Each structure stands twice: as C-alpha cells, then as structure tokens.
Amino acid sequence: DQQVKQNSPSLSVQEGRISILNCDYTNSMFDYFLWYKKYPAEGPTFLISISSIKDKNEDGRFTVFLNKSAKHLSLHIVPSQPGDSAVYFCAASDYNTDKLIFGTGTRLQVFP
Amino acid sequence: DAMVIQNPRYQVTQFGKPVTLSCSQTLNHNVMYWYQQKSSQAPKLLFHYYDKDFNNEADTPDNFQSRRPNTSFCFLDIRSPGLGDAAMYLCATSRGRESGQFFGPGTRLTVL
Q: What is the DSSP-derived secondary structure letter of residue A84?
C-alpha cells in the first residue's frame, strides 16, 4: 500500500519551459512534504519543502504547491535547465515522527 | 565540508556471506537512518536511530541489523545476504523533522 505516489515515471521538457512534477498521497496525517533530487551515483539531495499550513512555497526557480483537499502536491521548475535533469522524489511525514515516506520518483529530462 | 560519507561505494558479496556497510557523518546530527532502494522503487526505511534509541521498521527482515557506536558512525550488517538483498543502501542524517534528511551517496550492494 503506497502512501506516496508519483504516477509519472518520466517527464521530458524543453530547456526554458516549465517542468511540473506531481505527487499524490493517501495519509491525511501527513503534514510535511519534501522534494528531493537525485543524480546518478549520488544520494538524494533536499530541494524544497512545504508544511501543511501553507499552500505554496517558493525558492528561486522551484515552487511547491500543496492542495490538501486533493491530497496532491506539485513541484514547478521554471525555467527548466539541462542541469535539472535528474530523478525527483516526493516525500512526506506526519507530525508524530521524523520518518519520511518516499514516492517512486519521476525522471526529468530537460533537453536543449 | 560537513557531510554524510558511506563506505564502500560498491560492495560485492557472495550469497550467504555476511557484509557490513558503514556510514559516518560530520554534521553532528542526532538522528541517523538506513534505507534500502531497489531499481525504480522508492527508498524504503529499514531502521533509524534517535541518538542511541534504535527503531526497527516492522517489515525489516531479521537478516538486517544495525549498530550505532557513537554519534558519528552507523553500521548496517546483513548477516546472510540473499539475491533479493541486492540494492542501493542509503544512509541519511537529520537534526529534526523540519530540517530535512541529508543523504550519503549510497553503497550499491551486489550479491553473487
């Protein structure tokens, strides 16, 4: 039973355009959400997070949107750059624990 | 630079031959985690330590053990590796839920 789902295994976007990566969750106890980026042969790197008291958090080219009623979050990257090509993992936790539940990842490819 | 280090990066072992993976951190974080990640799957939490308090996930096989002799080091012992244990093993640290988790580069385990 997967509590965090990333239904698109891959996404291909042209450089300069917007990349939108989606994530759905089922556990209504989740109140903190994170996005991680992973290059080959490296560990995941923290990218951006959002608390459930917010619906948007922005950091430079990266914005995360949270729709609690739909149990959905998305990561927007604009403008996309070739260096953004990586696997992006969505993760969630509830207030009881430091543990993260990860999605299966979306492989983003940004082409020139 | 403060970081999470995993050794070795690649480990080959034989079926049934015990193996130990190591993780060290210079971040002085009190929480350490071990994840198993198989190809195209989400990282799966095996254990975590909150200081010296050990927390085992319910579905972590008995074949997997862990030790944390001090704040900086954490070990993952696989007593009798099977072919199904071939995976990437990720170590992560944290100083609290909203600081996120910091990952090492991982150790890729191959079981022959």
A: G
B90 contacts A2? CB cut-off 8 A: no
State how far the Cα of A106 lies from the Cα of A24, in Å rounded to an integer.
13
Nearest residue of chain A to residue B42 (CA atoms): A104
Nearest by CB to B101, from A9, A42, A100: name it. A100
pLDDT tier, B2 (very low <50, low <70, confident <90, very high otherwise): low
As to burial, measured by CB atoms within 10 angstroms (0-12 exposed, 13-18 middle, 19+ buried), residue B65 is middle
Better-scored residue on pLDDT, B2 or B97: B97
**Which residues, 6+ apart, have CB-to-CB distance to B101 below 8 Å?**
A46, A100, B33, B92, B93, B94
Instruction: Tell me the CA end-to-end span of chain B in Å, nearest whole number.
Output: 36
